[in-house]
Amino acid sequence: MEFFDRAWGFILAGGPVMWPLLAVSVWLWTLILAKALWLWRVGRERVDLDLAVECLLGHAAPPPAKRGLLYDALAMYLDLPSHGGPGDAILWDVAVRHQRPRLRRYLDTILVLVAVAPLLGLLGTVTGMIETFQVICIFGTGNAQSMASGISEALITTQTGLMVAVPGMLAGWALRRAAGRRMNELLAFQKAVGSWLESKEA
């Protein structure tokens, strides 16, 4: 209970800018956790070329949808009514390209929120200093308590903005690297299946 009281006091001391900072923090880490969970699930996906060929030949059941990038690309291709013809390699390329935006989803938003957090902290710094100068103009330097309120707002918002941005930046960088690895796996799978389809057409 004491922790929540101190946290509430910290938010109030930071002034009104703390509320958008709090919203940005919640939004940012919701996206980070959602993306990390999705990449972890996709990273566990294992579809080798032999299984893909069995599915393409109709010797194995089509993979279930919503299982991962490779499964979904294969399932989408098999659902196309025109597959099995001379343009199979092109259709396969279309099915794989349809999966690529899923790897980039949320990453740009995460980076934008990481950039917004310290700017909001800077805004809080400016408003806190303005409040401090207003107190000095009205009361002079004799009202230390009123001056401390503005200085606290300036420092707390700056600190909070950096506390949100720095871990978010590191997490966003890690997610981009993980998404890059998944993209390489997808491209390798695309190339392997595409080569098989082209050899079948030859």
TrEMBL record:
The chain crosses the membrane at residues 20-40, 106-130, 150-175. The keyword Cell membrane applies. It is a multi-pass membrane protein. Pfam families: MotA_ExbB. InterPro entries: ExbB/TolQ_transport, MotA_ExbB_proton_chnl. It comes from the Bacteria. GO terms for cellular component: plasma membrane. It is found in: Cell membrane; Membrane. Residues 94-185 form the MotA/TolQ/ExbB proton channel domain. One of its GO terms (biological process) is protein import. Keywords: Cell membrane, Membrane, Protein transport, Transmembrane, Transmembrane helix, Transport. Belongs to the exbB/tolQ family. This is MotA/TolQ/ExbB proton channel. It comes from Desulfarculus baarsii (strain ATCC 33931 / DSM 2075 / LMG 7858 / VKM B-1802 / 2st14).
